[in-house]
Predict the 3D structure of the following.
Amino acid sequence: MDSATIRKQCIQFFAGQGHTIVPSSSLVPSDPSVLLTTAGMQQFKPYYTGEADPEKDFGSKNTASIQKSFRTSDIDEVGDETHLTFFEMVGNFSFGGYFKEETIKLAHEFITKVMELPISYVTIFKGSDMVPKDEESRQIWNSLGVNDVREEDIQDVFWGPTGNSGPCGPTTEIYCKNAAGKDVEIWNCVFNQFFYPGSREELLAGTPGKELEPLTTPGVDTGMGLERLAMISQNAKNIFDTDLFHPLIQSLPAGVDPRKKRIIADHVRGIVFLLADGVRPSNKGAGYILRRLARRVMVYEKTEIIPAHVIQSMVHEVIHDYGEFYPELLKEADVIRTEIEAERGKFGKTLERGMKELEKIGQISVSDAFRLYETYGLPYEVIKEIGGEKTDDVTREGFDAEFLKHQEISRAGVEKKFGGHGLLLDTGELKAGSEEELKIVTRLHTATHLLNAALRKVLGDSVEQRGSDITAERTRFDFLFPRKLTSDEIAKVEELVNYAIQKDFLMTIQELPLDEAKKSGALFFYKGHYPERVKVYTVGNEFETFSKELCGGPHVARTSEIGKFKIVKEEASSAGVRRIRAIVL
């Protein structure tokens, strides 16, 4: 069964079982605790915790999706037979609609009846000091004729929170055999029974002061890797032998090492999907991840003597093979190609010099490696690969530590230069790396306050901020709203922001205790972590208050400094959350 048919079968099966099919959310999540979307359940977190109502937003307590996902933790492992950066995650989710019995029966029916695949074995949670053994799941599997039920510990079959906190619980995994005779986990069914106020790592470590709390309404979160399902269905030995990768790998010259072929194929997919979701190459956040992938591919182009048109044809193939299911790829096709060529132009100027410099150095230290990255743009992966034994002393942990040290030095310089705003260069809401960039993000930051206020004036008080991200190129603002905005509504919002700019309102600052500030009517981010005393920024005059919000700066002194405000895009960010991208001119 080809991958396009597998997607259709997944959608048809769960729709036929009463699930609302929800489109994939962006790879750039509204959840500020994670850099990129790593799992299908991410867009549904508010429905497990009771912050959002699934019946109001989806007309059902049960949903299903095929989610674009990206895991940065696997970049160094790509090249073997199993690891990927970008992947597709099929999942069904229930927010109090059903629990263990129906989840297991649905999974069993889909695998054995729809896909007609034999199950090799399943796993259940064997219990711990915190949670008893999952005997209920064992009994359900046995009733379906699956008797090879294996017990595993909390490290393997107790799913922790996504990000810094969230729902969690025991899981049951389904294994099938691939063409090489290996048992492969293809589906993980998570039974969310608890909320944990920390990360998965903290949960496994038993961090003092952080305890599992029972969820009021238990839920279900399942995830099945489409690439792995395709491998089993197509009787392939690994994911790279499936129709998702084989055509890409075959387009590369025969003499290229198989491991490098897999890396290129994986990275090209990741590059295309990141660009389609608005990520741009940079040295910050998700842009840094994109740049790492792109430059690694470009280094291989040079070292393996791969003609540029080969990578261009792979990009074209990804866009068109996936474009029917993910229409944003077709919509952004020209932008994707333009950005890749622009990055090739930037990197090409320094690549050859960087590689020559790398060859000159004897034993390469961590500081040498970081200098090669900072000066010539050579990613860690490329330095390790080309440097070979000369880089034995360079580890990912050491390189990342050097990177963070550099950030701290840069941050201290910016704080000294610009009045101690506490502006972060690479994390958080604001990102600026120079005096000129800081001026732009300051204008955009104040404009985002005006945008928040304008949205509430046009759409009503139900609008709630769900995250923002500001760079020198644009502001990105996520807010709770159940539908797409009309062109008239977008025009009214933009007009209101520009009205506030033209009025040349003064920005006034008042410091108050947190509770008093919230009672004053000032807007605040519901997930924000605020100190006991906060600053309230008000835009207006003695006759009109346009905006009032808790914040930490920086801002312009008067709104006329912002310039002209323009909305360039309004789109879905995740379930029930809209996203606006805007610029100032």
